[in-house]
Write a structure and sequence with these properties.
β8 and β9 (278-283) form a beta hairpin. The protein is 37% helix and 17% strand. The protein is built from twelve helices and twelve strands. Its EC number is 4.4.1.2.
């Protein structure tokens, strides 16, 4: 048997640990320091930290590339977008996370980017938008529409067109989807969500299989100062250790809820990508969705996702959400509670 673990559930538990030596700590300690003794690496805390290195080793091993941790998911997104040349075109899913779209739209207003929005489920339309572009930005599943992209097809088309491809893998995680193996050049995470998993950390990450791209992104982090705190990284690594069991339970709950809610009163549509712990319920209108949010007792109205607790929100309550998202769409982040309790709470909230 190889000394190197091959299965992702094992990698999540074992990667990024100190050497197995007598008397050594089992976990990488938190390194609270701004300064390092001269003559070693790192030379300064803006460029590295042993706690970062442990997390980056673990997530990098899971995704199959070189990981760079950031202070937030949007810091990671910004670092990748910064690699696009001035005036370069970005092909992006129309239902991408709203703040990533805001970043692109603000850049477009100043001439920094050309933005080409596409329906990510229409492969022909995506391919038609690629010529002359600099970057293809994919989410799969998309947030909050929960559309699933044909990643191998689209990344292959991007490579053939000389376009770099990025996949935001926050919803699926590397336990359900490994975009680098599917042809992507870069993977982005809001590690705030399922990776850390306990709604107590803000953190981002970029993973790439290209050493030169990793060096550029790492340089951007150090130059712009979008560095994570060591305690946040420590907590995210601790959360990563249990990702497989959390994901298994929450995903199982999500599939069962999708089945039970399909014929529930007032539900027009259940969107279940089958590739995440996130569902969407489409109700008749905003008022119907708002009533459910007001009536739930176990589910928590909140805008984030990926924690052990179940949360929900009506996404169009945000004025910056895409107008093609239905007014009555509720995004559900399914947690690890008992599925019967989750279902009962939603069904009573949906009832007249």
């Amino acid at each position: 048997m190889s000394d190197t673990p091959r299965r992702p559930e094992t990698i999540a538990v074992t990667a990024g640990r100190p050497p197995h030596e007598p008397g050594a700590p089992l976990n990488q300690p938190v390194a609270f320091t701004s300064t390092f003794v001269q003559g070693g690496d790192p030379v300064y805390a803006r460029y590295g930290n042993p706690t970062w290195s442990a997390f980056e080793e673990a997530l990098g091993a899971l995704e199959g590339g070189d990981c760079i941790a950031f202070s937030s998911g949007m810091a990671a997104v910004s670092a990748v977008m910064a690699q696009v040349p001035h005036g370069g075109a970005v092909v992006v899913a129309r239902h991408t996370y709203q703040h990533a779209l805001l970043l692109l739209d603000e850049g477009a207003a100043s001439g920094r980017f050309e933005v080409r929005r596409v329906d990510i489920t229409d492969g022909d339309a995506v391919e038609a938008a690629l010529p002359g572009a600099a970057l293809l930005w994919l989410e799969s599943p998309t947030n909050p529409a929960l559309e699933v992209a044909d990643i191998p097809r689209l990344t292959a088309a991007a490579r053939a067109a000389g376009v770099q491809s990025v996949v935001d893998n926050t919803f699926a995680t590397p336990l359900l989807q490994r975009p680098l193996e599917l042809g992507a050049d870069i993977v982005v995470h809001s590690a705030t969500k399922l990776i850390a998993g306990h709604s107590d950390v803000v953190l981002g990450a970029v993973v790439t299989g290209a050493p030169e791209a990793a060096e550029r992104i790492r340089h951007h982090r150090g130059l712009h100062g979008a560095i994570p705190g060591p305690m946040e990284v420590f907590l995210a690594l601790r959360g990563l250790r249990t990702l497989s069991v959390r994901l298994e339970r929450a995903a199982s709950n999500a599939r069962e809820l999708a089945r039970r809610l399909a014929d529930a009163p007032g539900v027009v549509e259940v969107r279940d990508p089958g590739l995440s712990t996130v569902l969407a319920l489409v109700l008749a209108d905003a008022a119907a969705a708002d009533r459910v949010v007001e009536r739930v007792r176990l589910w928590i109205p909140a805008t984030s996702l990926g924690g052990v607790e179940s949360t929900l929100e009506r996404r169009r309550r945000w004025p910056t959400e895409a107008p093609t998202i239905p007014e009555g769409l509720l995004r559900l982040s399914v947690g690890i509670e008992h599925v019967d309790d989750l279902a009962e709470d939603l069904l009573q909230a949906l009832g007249e």
